[in-house]
Amino acid sequence: MGDAGNWCLIESDPGVFTEMLRGFGVDGLQVEELYSLDDDKALMKPVYGLIFLFKWRQGDHGNGTSSPDPTIFFAQQVIQNACATQAIINLIMNLEDKNVNIGPLLTQYKEFAVEMDPATRGLVLSNSDEIRSVHNSFARQTLYELDIKGGEAEDNYHFVTYVPIGGKVYELDGLRDYPLELAAIPEGGDWVEVVRPIIQERMAKYSEGEITFNLMAMVPNRKQKYQEMLESLQQANENNELDEQIADISRSIAEEDHKMAMYSKENARRRHNYTPFIVQLMKILAKESKFVPLVENSYQAAKQKAQMNTDKTTLPLKK
Amino acid sequence: MAMFSNTRTTAPSSGHIVEFKAGRSRLEPGSGGDATKKVIAEAAKGLVFIKQSNDMLVHFCWKNRETGALVDDLIIFPDDAEFKAVTGCPDGKVFMLKFKSSGEMKLFWLQDPSPDADKDLIKKVNDALNKPATSRPSGAARSSGSGAERPSAGGTSAAAAGAQDFNGMGGLDQSQLMSLIQSLQGNESMAALTSSGGGGSSTAAATAGTEAASSEADCEPTGESTSSSNPLSLDNPAIRMAFSNLAKKEARGLKKVFVPLAEVLSNEQVAEIARQHAEELTPLLPPSENPEQELSETVRTPQFRQAADTLGTALQTAQLRPVLEQFGMHPTVLEAADEGSLLRFAREMTRTEGGHHVEDSSPESGVPKTQPEDEDVAREPEPKRNRPDDMDDMDVD
């Protein structure tokens, strides 16, 4: 991994990934966090792939057949902090949809790496300055490195992606040698239905082992979809009988706009180094003689609450 | 590749013995009078985990998954606490960590909807708390001794409680401790020690603990005032050990707790002051289409809170000096930072920034003054409770 430059740890958040897609120049996609595999709103069709994040541990593997099919684009994971980015790129490389434009940067990578074996593809990816700089632009800013024991850095999160390719569902896990063929998709069937029980089984297993995980979906750019729907509704709305649907869609578009505005705000905050602000704020509070009382309040409040809790807990719980 | 092939050899990569997603709950008076309590779930997403630190102590921790802040970090000694299910909560799975000595309890609600999430959880947690990886002598001593039942022979309940405190941590059971004391002292002084350990409850224990644990000069007088020939002086290694174990025990409840800086700064009062100083502060925020609103929201954003907590942790672990130096802080402020005390830091900063002297500001805040020796000794702070209490915010992942 020494040659791969410095890939920063980034937060796993749909807002980060959605903006990262923009950063790569991908058009027509976004990432939604799923709270359930039945979440039809988040799972806007077509679902291009599912990204499963979990805390990696030894001896952990899914069930399926290793498939060295060269038509599947699969890059092995060479460096750790880039695993989300690598998982997303693996997914995008296998995506063929006229509504999605993966942009010049990823097209160039795909053309360059398509003839290579999975390990070399991973190496090329991790050596791409352009991809790395987009990834790193989401890193949290700090002035200092802290020695905090038990911190996040000790946790190894790992991403795998589930993708439908040529009538089959595959699991792409950058720690494996090859893609894993999981199941066939019935003619005209929805691949999400096929993969649902597989993911649910995995979730059940992880819940049992108290492993943290979460699930995200790569779906079409919803605003674009809504706008297409809006246009066709408006054309068909001759006698105003579709006014209600049009209002609904317009609301959904406004929601998406709001969400994207929030994402961009949050990402601006993620990238921001708050240390100078906090130092200045503490100076102002000190100058106004508010800092000491505030700190004392916090100690005091903590104590009072602890006291309250102790008093309460002397009473028996209701059975 | 190297990084991953390394981690493949170590089992749970987080180093956590057990972990599960859970939020905190609190007790509030119920409708059925004083004896009933309602368990109220707090909405914040969290993670409970148990880990063993390098010194082999077992920590029971709760982390807020939204802010990433480590809110609870409790050191648990074997047989100190019990983890069990709370029955009678129809709308969720609620568990409690109950301390046997104090009766204090911490409540958590499971944020993992899968039906198997709580399978074996109680056993796993109790095993993690009570059977840590290294064999701790206390476990063996107790099981072969008179059992875990607390002695009634100790006389007053205070004495029994004191013995229990000793019993809980040092690897000595009560009879062993008694015989140790007898061998050191003779019977006539035994009562004195027992009552000071027992009757003193947390204050006496904490003071003793501080003395044993701290190397500061002002903690020496106890040792000096007692003749060094006195077997009960702190010079006696056995007593030292008992006290130092006691200090560890007390560390659970009365340790030096980090006051999260976000708790100090993330409130309306600070937001208001920030608004009044928009000119100085806005340039230090991320670019925004609406700088006024951004400034107004800042102190409540998770990103600010996280940064504040990191900075606060750095300060309270005496690691902040290099950062503060970059901001040209006054040397006395840097010295205060080196001590790792947020309060001293705040006082020093107030002095150098020309604010009123600390004593002037306290009355107006209406907060009783904190005792100097008490300032770093606070109970674990509770998280903010301004969130709506509902069970709907479950993770379904």
TrEMBL record, chain A:
It is an enzyme of class 3 (hydrolase). The active site is at C83 (nucleophile), H158 (proton donor). Belongs to the peptidase C12 family. Its EC number is 3.4.19.12. The record marks D173 as: Important for enzyme activity. GO terms for molecular function: cysteine-type deubiquitinase activity. Gene3D superfamilies: 1.20.58.860, Peptidase C12, ubiquitin carboxyl-terminal hydrolase. It comes from the Eukaryota. PANTHER family: UBIQUITIN CARBOXYL-TERMINAL HYDROLASE, UBIQUITIN CARBOXYL-TERMINAL HYDROLASE ISOZYME L5. One of its GO terms (cellular component) is cytoplasm. The record marks Q77 as: Transition state stabilizer. Keywords: Hydrolase, Protease, Thiol protease, Ubl conjugation pathway. GO terms for biological process: negative regulation of proteasomal ubiquitin-dependent protein catabolic process; protein deubiquitination; ubiquitin-dependent protein catabolic process. It comes from Caenorhabditis brenneri (Nematode worm). It catalyses: Thiol-dependent hydrolysis of ester, thioester, amide, peptide and isopeptide bonds formed by the C-terminal Gly of ubiquitin (a 76-residue protein attached to proteins as an intracellular targeting signal). This is Ubiquitin carboxyl-terminal hydrolase. Residues 6-220 form the UCH catalytic domain.
From TrEMBL, chain B:
Residues 128-161, 191-235, 346-397 are annotated as: Disordered. InterPro entries: DEUBAD_dom (IPR044867), Rpn13/ADRM1 (IPR006773), Rpn13/ADRM1_Pru (IPR044868), Rpn13/ADRM1_Pru_sf (IPR038633), RPN13_DEUBAD (IPR032368), RPN13_DEUBAD_sf (IPR038108). It comes from the Eukaryota. It is found in: Cytoplasm; Nucleus. PROSITE patterns: DEUBAD (PS51916), PRU (PS51917). Residues 12-132 form the Pru domain. One of its GO terms (molecular function) is proteasome binding. Residues 132-161, 202-216 have a biased composition (Low complexity). Pfam families: Rpn13_ADRM1_Pru, RPN13_C. Residues 346-360, 378-389 have a biased composition (Basic and acidic residues). The keyword rRNA-binding does not apply. Residues 223-233 have a biased composition (Polar residues). Its main location: cytoplasm. Belongs to the ADRM1 family. This is Proteasomal ubiquitin receptor ADRM1 homolog. It comes from Caenorhabditis brenneri (Nematode worm).
